[in-house]
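Summary of Year 1 activities. Much of the first year was spent building the evaluation harness for sequence design. The harness presents a backbone, in tokenized form, and records the residue chosen at every position. We chose the following record to illustrate the format because it has been used consistently in internal testing since the harness was completed.
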């Protein structure tokens, strides 16, 4: 049984007096102002305006007060809680604006940053040039033929009239594979593609075959044990050296421009008769005195060797099953690496094969 209500004695309700309520209010307002982000403000809201906050607990006490005290305390606490609600809403709005600004700032994309931090690879200039060469011939209606890099000795040599005693068959030039009785070599030239083509197709034959070849050469500025050739072969009725010359002049012009000067020099290849070597006017000294005398590019020759060619030896036609009475042909084999060096002023062959992408990218995506 409770006793009668006594007169209002402020001393008995200290937590609800003005000083305390003000203190709680000030503390809460300070905490709200001090909340640095929405997360902190959420914690401040629970602590100072939640169900178990000092002001909420004080509010619960009000009911127990005598009427006059209840009225005063109710007004004080009510006002303090209202102030907190207002302050919380204001701070919330402020922090939301800040958070949004921060997010925009953090998510901003700097369009000036490099977009391709992993540089893309580049097609190798030799690959691009090989395709371009093939295109020159495909545009004339020729076909592209291919052969394997590991080739039968017979196709690399015998079928091409390179007899067993030919110097190119000694160990010095050729990479032989083991076991020796398999008679396989790394092809030393693209010419075996000629034999393969004649054995599998019937004339008229118009084929071009760019590809890799191997020789046991030193690796220096002008030699490499792996290099590239493009082979050409035509077998048809009435083919002469004149067709060969016209074709190679067109090929040279499409590689080096109309102003290029070529020279045909009598030569010898077992698979052609007659044979010639094709030279290009040196692009550095142009064969003009006195520069030509000290020209390092052509070594004082005024000309640079481009490749070999000739009228297909009837013995090769016969070995490959072609009727040599009815058909004649011409063939050529040009150095693709030389073409690239000549066309683009590459002075060291090793730059082409060391796989440094900076060499390739310098050529752009097309030649
Ligand atoms: N295969 C020869 C070489 O590697 C180049 C060559 C000469 C190819 C004359 C031919 C040709 O087709 O007719 O030196």
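For this record, the design step produced the sequence shown next.
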């Amino acid at each position: 049984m409770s006793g009668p209500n006594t007169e209002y004695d402020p001393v008995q309700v200290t937590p609800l007096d003005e000083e305390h309520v003000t203190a709680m209010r000030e503390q809460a307002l300070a905490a709200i102002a001090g909340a640095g982000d929405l997360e902190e403000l959420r914690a401040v809201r629970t602590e100072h305006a939640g169900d178990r906050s000092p002001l909420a607990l004080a509010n619960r006490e009000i009911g127990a007060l005598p009427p006059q005290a209840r009225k005063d305390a109710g007004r004080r606490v009510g006002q303090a809680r209202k102030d907190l609600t207002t302050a919380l809403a204001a701070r919330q709005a402020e922090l939301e604006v800040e958070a949004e600004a921060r997010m925009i700032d953090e998510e901003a994309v700097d369009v000036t940053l490099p977009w391709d931090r992993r540089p893309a690879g580049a097609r190798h200039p030799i690959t691009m040039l090989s395709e371009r060469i093939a295109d020159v011939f495909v545009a004339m209606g020729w076909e592209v033929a291919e052969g394997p890099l590991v080739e039968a000795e017979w196709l690399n040599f015998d079928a091409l009239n390179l007899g067993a005693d030919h110097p190119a068959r000694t160990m010095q030039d050729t990479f032989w594979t083991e076991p020796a009785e398999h008679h396989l070599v790394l092809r030393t030239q693209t010419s075996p593609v000629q034999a393969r083509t004649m054995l599998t197709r019937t004339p008229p034959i118009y084929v071009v075959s760019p590809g890799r070849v191997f020789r046991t050469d030193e690796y220096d500025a002008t030699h490499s044990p792996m290099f590239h050739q493009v082979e050409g072969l035509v077998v048809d009725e009435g083919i002469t050296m004149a067709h060969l010359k016209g074709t190679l002049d067109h090929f040279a012009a499409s590689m080096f421009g109309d102003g290029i000067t070529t020279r045909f020099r009598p030569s010898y290849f077992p698979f052609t008769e007659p044979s010639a070597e094709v030279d290009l006017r040196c692009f550095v000294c142009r064969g003009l005195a006195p520069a030509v005398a000290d020209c390092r590019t052509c070594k004082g020759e005024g000309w640079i060797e481009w490749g070999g060619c000739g009228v297909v030896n009837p013995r090769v036609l016969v070995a490959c099953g072609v009727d040599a009475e009815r058909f004649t042909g011409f063939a050529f084999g040009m150095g693709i690496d030389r073409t690239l060096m000549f066309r683009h002023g590459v002075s060291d062959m090793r730059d082409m094969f060391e796989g440094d992408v900076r060499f390739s990218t310098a050529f752009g995506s097309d030649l």
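The chain has a mean pLDDT of 90. Quantitative recovery figures across the full test set are reported in Table 2.
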